[in-house]
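Budget justification note: compute hours in this period were largely spent on complex prediction jobs such as the one shown. Inputs:
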Amino acid sequence: MAIPIAYNLRNLVVRKTTTVMTAIGIGLTVAVLVADLALVEGLKTAFKATGHPLQLVVMRKGSNAEMSSTVTREAFQTLKAEPRLAVNEAREPLASPEILTVINLPSVDSPAGMNLTVRAMSQVGVEMRGAKIQPGGRWFQSGQREIVVGKSVVKRYPNAQPGKRLRFGRGEWEVVGVFDAGDSAFNGEIWGELNQIGADYNRQDTFSSVLVRAGDEATLQALANSLNDDQRLGVTVMREREYYEQQTASGAPLQFFGLLVAVIMAVGSSFAAMNTMYAAVARRAKEIGTLRVLGFSRGSILLSFLIESLLLALIGGVIGCLLALPINGVTTGVGNFATFSEVAFDFRVSPSTMLAGIIFALVVGAIGGLFPASNAARKEILTALREI
Amino acid sequence: MNVINYLPLITKNSFRNRRRSVLTIGSLMVSLCLLVLLMAMYKVLFYGAEQTPAQAVRIMMRHKVSLANPLPLSYEGKIQQVRGVKSVSVRQWFGGTYRDARDRRNFFARFGVRPAELFKAYPEYVIPEEQKQAFERERTGCVASKPLAEKFGWKPGERITLVGDFFPTTLELKLVGVFEEPNKFEALFFNWDYLRDGLKAAGAPDLDFTSQYLVLADSPDDVPLVTKAIDDMFDNSPYPTKTESEQAFVLSFVGFLGNLKLFLLAIGGAVTFTILLVSANTLSMSVRERIREVGVLKTLGFTPGTIFGILLGEGAMIAIVGGVLGCALAQGFCVMLRNAPIPIQQIRAMNVTPLIASISLLIALLVGLISATVPAAGAARRPILDSLRHTG
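Corresponding output:
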C-alpha cells in the first residue's frame, strides 16, 4: 500500500524554509536550462518560418551559401524564361535576382559594430516573401537611394531607424520604412533596390542568387531536377525552407555552452536536494518506524520519500520556468556563418521548453532523493523508533 | 573572543555530520568551480589572454565591413610606408569546397599566402626545413597544420582538390609539408600566386585584391599607433579598413557567437545565488539540530557572542573548503581545455589566476558568513531554558 501524497506535501510545508531554499536552488538551474532552450527554440522558429514551401534558392554550383555564390545575368535570363515558373497577378514570372552584401553597424549588444545582411532585390522579391510594410513607412522606390529595415533590426540597431541615413556602398541610403516578415529570419535584414545597390557594388551583371517559385510540388521537383542537371547554367538549387533550416546550426556554440552550464549546476543542485532529503529522513526516523509498525512496506517508504523529493524538485521546476518566462520575446542575435552576419530572433519559452525544464528538475529530484529514500527504507523498525 | 582558540571546536562541528558536510562541500565545490571558470572565461575573452612576443606584433587588417569584402592590392605599398610597420603580407581567404560541402567536417580555413613570408610571421609554426623549402619552390604546393593533416590522415604528397565557389577556379594542390600549430588551428596555406595563375587560365580578371593583410609591427608598442595610422589613412577611401591586433581580431569572432558578456554575467549571478541558498540551507539545518547543544554550551558559560562567532566560523569553514576544492577542480578543467579541439584560442588559454582564485575564495567566505548569520543569530539569542527544552 502506498503512503498518501498528502503526507509528503504536508512535510514540505512544515519545513517551508528548507523547502523554499532547495526549490529555488533547483529553480535557478532549471531557469538557465530553459533560457538556453528558449534561445535555440527561437532560432529554430525564425529559420523554420523562413521560406516558402514552393520556392527554390538558385546558387552557383558548389555554393551552399548565398554569400559565396554568383549567378550571372545570362543565367538569370534563362531562368526567367523557364515556363514552369509561377507568375504573379501582373503575369510576371516569380523569379527574383538578388545581391547579398554585409554592412557593419553598431548594435545595442556590440557598440563596436555587428554585421548585418543587406539584400538587394526587385519588387518581385518582396512579393515572394509576403513581407508587409509597417504603418507610417513605405517600400523603397526604384531609382532612389532608399532602403527598408526589418522589424528586428529597428529594435537592435540605433542607427537603422526610419528617417535616418546609413552609409554604405558609395554613399548614403535613406531608411523609408520598417517591414514585417512574420516570424522569419528576414526581419534581421535590410532590403534595398537591386539596380541601385548593384551599381554601388559593381555587381550589375553578377547576382548572388535567384529565388524562384513553382506553381505546385510536382512542378517544383521537376524544375529543381532540370536546373540541377543543366550544365550550361552551372547552378545548384535548394529548397528555400531547407536552405534556411540548415542555418539553425549557427546557435550551436551558445547552445552547447548553456547546456554545459546547466548540467554542472544540476550536479550542485542534486547534492543540495540530497542534503535536504537526508535531513528529512533523519528528522523523521521515528515516523518511519511508526509507518513500518503500521504495516507500510519498505517499498512504500522508499516510494514515499522519492515522491517527496520529486515534489520538491517539481516546485523548483515551476519556479525555474517562472524565472525564465520574462525572457520570452526578448530579441537577441547570433552570428550566422552562412552569411557572415547577425541573425536576429526572439527567445521563445514554449510549452515544450518548459516541459523539458520540469523533466530536468525531476531528474535532479530523483537523483537527489534516491539515496536518502533507500536509506529511509533500510531502517530497522526498532532502531528507528528508538531514535530521537 | 579569540577565534584561534575555538578553531578545533569549529572544525569538529563542521564535520560532525560527515555526509552532510561532504554533500554541501560537493555542491559548493561544483558551483564555485563553475563560477571560477566563468570568471576565467570572462577574463580571457574580454581582457585578453597572454600573448607570445611573435603574436604581440601581428596585426590583422581587413575591410571595415567584413572579411567577405576585399581590399585592393594597391594598399600594400601604402601600408609599407607607415611608421612602425616591419612587413606586409597578403592573406587571401579561399572558400570553395573540399570533397563534399554538406559534411561540416570538410570545412577548414584555406588561405592563399606568399610562402616565403608565412613562416617568418608565424615563428610558432614549426616545420622541417626541407618541407618549408618545398613549399617555397613548388607552385602547387600547400602546407597544412598538424591537427588538420591528422584529421584527414594526410601525408606529404597527398593531392588535395579545392573547388572554388567565389573564385571560378579549381585548385589542384599537393601537400608538401605539415607544420606544428600550438593553437590546434585547422588551416591549409597554399601559394597565392597559384590562385592568380588559375584565375588567369579561367579567363577571369587578375587578382587585384586580397581579403586580408597581415602586418607585422616593429615592436608591440607600435601596434596601437600602426593600427590607427592605417585606418585613418583609408578612412575616406572606397575601401575603409579595420586594423586590429591579432588578438582583437580573433576576439571579434567571439562577439559573433552572441552576447556572451551578458550570458556570462547572468549565469555567474545565478550560480552565486545558488551557492548562497545551498550554504544557508545546510547551516540552518545544522543549527536547528543543535539547539539543545547550544543550550548546554551556554550553561557551560559560553556567551551569545562566542556562540555566534563559532557558528559563523563553521559557515566560513565549509564554504572555504568548498571554494578551495572548486578552484582546484576549475584548474583541472583548464588544463584539460588546453588540449581540447576548440577553435577559439583564448578559451584554451583559460587559467585560474591568483586574482580569480582570491576573488572566488572571497565570494565563498562571504557566502559562508552571510548564510550563517541568520541561523547563528537565532541560536545565540535563544534563552537557555528554551534551548534545553527543545526537541527534534
